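Q: How would the structure tokens look for this protein?
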Amino acid sequence: MTGIPERTDVLVVGAGPVGLAVAVSLAGHGHDVTVVDKQAAGANTSRAAVVHARTLELLERIGVADRLAALGIQAEQFTIRDGDRELIPVRFDRLPTKYPYTLMVPQNVTEQVLLDRLEELGGSVHRPYVATAVTQSATGAEVTLDSGDVISARYVVAADGMHSTIRDLAGLGYSGESLQLNFSLADVRVDRGLTQEEVQLFFSTAGLLVVAPLPDGSYRLVAEVDQAPEQLDIAYAQRLLDVRGPQRTTARVTEVIWGSRFRIHERVADRYRNGKVLLAGDAAHTHSPAGGQGMNLGLRDAVDLGDALSVALKEGREDKLDEYAVASRAEALQVVALAHRLTKLATVPAALRPARNVLMRLASYLPAVRRGLAEQLSAIHPR
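A: Here is the predicted structure in token form.
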């Protein structure tokens, strides 16, 4: 890898999926793009694991959709359950799209596919570097790194996550709140009792549990809990499945591959653009994982922003950047509201959960309800 360049068309700060997708888009348009990241190596945990249909449609533009689709589980159905009882089946296979499914693929695989594509286009990621200062002029911006290097860029993209340094240095506010909800997340292996055919959301009286298959045969478990343990072990994961999951079959947990805990934040940046600095991904928005929307929204940001930056670089027009900033923020507000509603529905007080489940079962008889959920989750709407 070559050293840090002094000049570049676009500096992307952050090499998660969003930053990499912006870089791939720009490199594909023929622009000089530099990517820096604070980590010494790419993340090796799965974290976000859902890629929805509309996101795959946009990823076609940068040449990675089919590669990604081939590496994941193409789940055609998402089912909300109460134990073994089906409450609402959500079908994706009837949507008007080339990708009529939810793709289950670990985030580290998504990142690797994007990195491979970037390298094919002649790009790379410079590690580990932390951005410590940014100054702007009428023609560009200068970013100072912790190494002392200074990079001059025509534009800077902040894709450095919820705690974005670039966003804060550029004076772009980040409004919202932390919800008092604790979650446990674990990737586990089981020897029986779970299906690889669909994503299941269990609305049990004991609480929410998501069970999602992953391509290596493991399963992602996400549960809202009163107190999330620092270390998730086999016994803890087994209790979640026994109490909240399927009842007719017993899924025996044999291994916890990886686990974490988190609290939900709901925030959207006040603006997505200040001069030559633009936001994408978690630097611009963060919300509940309900519906698997977070990385999807960020990847859609990335492709749209790459296209808008290309117009600005080639034609000197910045109207597309303003359109991106307004439209992407509006979409983020809609997605945050959707995730909020799903989270509130999933975490109603225990005494109300049996009644909630009865009402959901009745609602499932309405085709418009099932279709509407599929359209909102996938971001594919009638055309």
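The longest strand covers residues 174-190.

The mean pLDDT is 93.

Upvote if useful.
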